[in-house]
Design a protein that fits this description.
The protein is an alpha/beta fold. It contains 21 helices and 19 strands. It folds into five domains: 121 residues, Response regulator (Rossmann fold), CATH 3.40.50.2300; 148 residues, Rossmann fold, CATH 3.40.50.2300; 26 residues; 92 residues; 159 residues, Histidine kinase-like ATPase, C-terminal domain (Heat Shock Protein 90), CATH 3.30.565.10. Helix content is 44%, strand content 18%. Strand 1, helix 2 and strand 2 form a beta-alpha-beta unit. The longest helix has 29 residues. The radius of gyration is 41 Å and the shape is elongated.
Length: 609
C-alpha cells in the first residue's frame, strides 16, 4: 500500500500545472505583451513544477463591444472541458475586467491573479476569495512634473491617447490629476484625431513642446495599432521629446523618467502565482500596489534634445551611454600600455649601450629615439631612424671612390676616362645623399608634392648603378628581368628608391657566406599594379621569423637595428601598396612588393628619374 501511494504521489508531482494566461487587446499590443513575455519566463524560473501555460487574447477589448464575450467564455470552457486550469492570470485592465465580469461561468473555483493593472481599474467589489491582484499606481502629476523638471522651458504638452474604453477612462484620470499644472503648461489632447493626423501634428509642434504618450491601441479612425508601431512612427516624425508611463516602451524612443518596472512587477506577480499554485488561498494574499521605479533616462535622447544631466532627479539611472574607450578596450589598452612600457625599457637600454659606440652608432641611436614620435608622425619617425644608415652608404661610396680617384691621379700617366667615371659616380652618390635629406625634410613638412609618376625600372637601374662596385666586390651575379614599357606608378622617388636599395642590400648581405651568389630582380605589371620581385640565394628565413621580419626592432642580423624592413613596409603601405616575403623555390628568400599603377598620365606630368 505504501509503495502504491508513493507511486501516485510521484505521478502527481510530475504532472504540469496548467495556467491560463489572458492578454488584453492581443498578444502583440504593448505594454501587455512585454509583461506577458517576461512573466512566462519569471514563472518558469520560480515554479517548482513544470508549467503548461496556455495563452489567449481578449480581442473584444479593442472596441468595448461585449456581445461576443459570452461566446468567448463558452469557448474557453470547451477548451478546458472537465479539467479546469490550476490558475488564471489576467494581464491588463481589459483582461482582468473580463474575468471578473464572467467569474461565475469562468472556472470560479480556480484561483485568479490580475496583474499589469492600475489599482483604479480593479473592480474590488467583485473580487472573490479566489481572486487577488498585483497592481500598480499611476501618479500622472509626478510624470508631468518630471517633464517640466528636465525641460523647464516647456510650454505645451501634447497627450497622445487612443479611444478604446480603457484609453478613454485614462484620459479623464490624466486630465483630473494634471489640472493643478494648467497654470504652468498647456496640455492638449489628440484622441479626436486619426493617427495619421496625429503624426502630421507632431511633426509641426511649436518650440518648447513635449509629447506624453499613454496608449495608442485604437485611434479615432478605428484603426488598431499593434506592438510598438505607433510609438515608432511617432518617434520618426516628432519634433519634440516623448515621455510615457511604462518601462515596456523604453529603449529608444522615450526620453525616460519615473516609469513602472516590468521586471519588478513580474517578479511580484510570479511570486504570488507560485503561492497560488502551491495551494495558498488567493483572498489571503493582499499586496499594496507598486509605484514608479527610480527614474531611468536614455542617454541618446538626452543628447538629442540637449537635456543636461544636472536637471535629472538625484537617483536617476542613465542607460545606453556608449562606453568609454577605457571601458570598451580595457584589456587591449592594458596590453598596449604594457607593450609601450616594454618598448620604453628596451629603448632606454639601447640608448645606454649606444653611448659607448662610435659617431655612426650615436646617429643610429638618435634615429631610434624618434620612435617616441610615432603617435604624432609614424612615417617621419621611422624614416628618421634610418637617416644615418641610408646616408652612410652613399658617403662610404664617395669616400671609396675619392680614394680611388686620388690613386689614379698619383700614377705617372693618369687614365682620364677612369677618373672621369669615378668622379661621375661621386657626383651621383652626393646627389643620392642630397635626395635622401630632401625627402626626409619634405616628409616632416608633410610635403605631398614630392609624389610623382615614376618608372620602377629606372629606379631599379639607378640602385644597381649605385651598388655596382659593392655587388661586384661581393661576387654577386645580378640577373634582371624587367618588363618593357612598364606602366608608371605614383610615389616619392627617394622613398621608393630607398625601398629597392634596402631590399637589394639585404639580399646581398644574406649571401655573404654562401655560393653561388645570385641576385634576381624582376618587374612586371599585373591587374592594376606593378610587382617588383627581388630574390636571393642566401640561407633563407625561418618560418617563425618570416611573419615578424617587417615588425619594428625585429632583426635576424647580429648587428641589425630591425628598422629597414619596417620602414620599407611603411613606405609601400603609405603609397597604397603591399610588401611580403616568401621562401625561394630551392633556397633563399623572395621579397616582393606591389604598387598601384597611375590610371592616366596627364600631359603636364613626366616620369620621375
Amino acid at each position: 500500500m505504501l509503495l502504491a501511494a508513493s507511486i501516485v504521489c510521484s505521478a502527481a508531482a510530475a504532472e504540469p500545472k496548467r495556467v491560463l494566461l489572458l492578454l488584453s487587446f492581443g498578444r502583440d499590443f504593448r505594454p501587455w505583451n512585454e509583461y506577458a513575455t517576461q512573466l512566462r519566463s519569471e514563472l518558469n524560473k520560480q515554479s517548482a513544477w513544470p508549467l503548461d501555460i496556455i495563452e489567449y487574447s481578449l480581442v473584444s477589448a479593442r472596441s468595448g463591444d461585449g456581445s461576443s464575450e459570452g461566446a468567448f467564455v463558452e469557448y474557453l470552457r470547451a477548451v478546458f472541458g472537465p479539467n479546469p486550469p490550476d490558475l488564471i492570470i489576467g494581464i491588463g485592465a481589459p483582461a482582468g475586467g473580463f474575468v471578473q465580469q464572467h467569474r461565475e461561468q469562468l472556472f470560479k473555483s480556480t484561483p485568479l491573479l490580475i496583474t499589469a493593472i492600475e489599482e483604479r481599474r480593479v473592480e474590488h467589489s467583485k473580487l472573490t476569495e479566489n481572486d487577488t491582484v498585483v497592481a500598480v499606481h499611476h501618479d500622472f502629476r509626478v510624470l508631468f512634473e518630471n517633464i517640466l523638471r528636465v525641460l523647464p522651458d516647456t510650454k505645451n504638452i501634447v497627450a497622445v491617447n487612443g479611444v478604446s474604453p480603457n484609453e478613454r477612462f485614462w484620459k479623464e484620470e490624466i486630465a483630473r490629476e494634471t489640472e493643478p499644472l494648467q497654470s504652468r503648461v498647456t496640455i492638449t489632447w489628440s484622441d479626436d484625431l486619426p493617427f495619421e493626423d496625429v503624426l502630421k501634428h507632431a511633426a509641426k509642434l511649436p518650440p518648447n513642446s513635449a509629447i506624453f504618450l499613454f496608449q495608442m491601441q485604437l485611434d479615432a479612425a478605428g484603426v488598431v495599432h499593434e506592438g510598438d508601431a505607433a510609438l515608432r512612427r511617432l518617434y520618426a516624425v516628432a519634433n519634440a521629446p516623448i515621455f510615457s508611463t511604462d518601462e515596456a516602451f523604453f529603449g529608444r524612443e522615450l526620453v525616460g523618467g519615473p516609469m513602472h518596472s516590468v521586471a519588478v512587477n513580474n517578479e511580484r506577480a510570479a511570486g504570488v502565482a507560485v503561492r497560488l499554485l502551491g495551494g495558498e488561498r488567493a483572498g489571503d494574499i493582499k499586496l499594496p500596489p507598486s509605484n514608479f521605479a527610480p527614474p531611468k533616462f536614455d542617454w541618446r535622447e538626452l543628447q538629442r534634445w540637449h537635456i543636461s544631466e544636472s536637471r535629472l532627479p538625484p537617483d536617476s539611472e542613465i542607460l545606453f551611454r556608449p562606453p568609454t574607450v577605457w571601458e570598451q578596450y580595457r584589456w587591449q589598452s592594458l596590453g598596449v600600455l604594457a607593450a609601450l612600457l616594454a618598448q620604453l625599457l628596451l629603448i632606454s637600454w639601447l640608448v645606454y649601450e649606444h653611448r659607448r659606440r662610435s659617431l655612426a652608432e650615436v646617429q643610429s641611436r638618435s634615429a631610434m629615439a624618434q620612435l617616441a614620435h610615432l603617435n604624432r608622425l609614424e612615417t617621419a619617425g621611422q624614416l628618421s631612424a634610418s637617416i644615418a644608415h641610408e646616408i652612410n652608404q652613399p658617403i662610404t661610396g664617395i669616400a671609396l671612390k675619392s680614394s680611388a680617384a686620388l690613386r689614379w691621379l698619383a700614377v705617372e700617366k693618369p687614365d682620364v676616362e677612369k677618373i672621369r667615371s669615378i668622379l661621375t659616380d661621386i657626383v651621383a652618390a652626393a646627389q643620392r645623399t642630397g635626395d635622401i635629406v630632401s625627402g626626409v625634410r619634405a616628409l616632416f613638412k608633410k610635403d605631398s608634392n614630392l609624389k610623382a609618376p615614376l618608372n620602377l625600372n629606372k629606379k631599379i637601374d639607378t640602385v644597381l648603378a649605385l651598388l655596382r662596385l659593392d655587388l661586384q666586390k661581393g661576387g654577386i651575379q645580378v640577373e634582371t628581368t624587367l618588363e618593357d614599357e612598364l606602366p608608371a606608378v605614383t610615389g616619392d622617388p627617394v622613398q621608393i628608391q630607398q625601398v629597392i636599395l634596402n631590399l637589394i642590400v639585404n639580399a646581398a648581405e644574406a649571401m655573404q657566406a654562401v655560393q653561388p651568389r645570385a641576385l634576381r630582380i624582376q618587374s612586371k605589371s599585373t591587374a592594376g599594379t606593378i610587382r617588383v620581385t627581388i630574390e636571393d640565394t642566401g640561407p633563407g628565413i625561418n618560418e617563425s621569423d618570416r611573419t615578424r621580419i617587417f615588425d619594428p626592432l625585429f632583426t635576424t642580423k647580429a648587428g641589425g637595428m630591425g628598422m629597414g624592413l619596417s620602414i620599407c613596409r611603411s613606405i609601400i603601405e603609405n603609397h597604397g601598396g603591399k610588401i611580403w616575403a616568401e621562401p625561394g623555390a630551392i633556397r633563399g628568400t623572395v621579397f616582393q612588393f606591389e604598387l598601384p599603377v597611375v590610371e592616366r598620365l596627364s600631359s603636364q606630368e613626366t616620369l620621375a628619374a
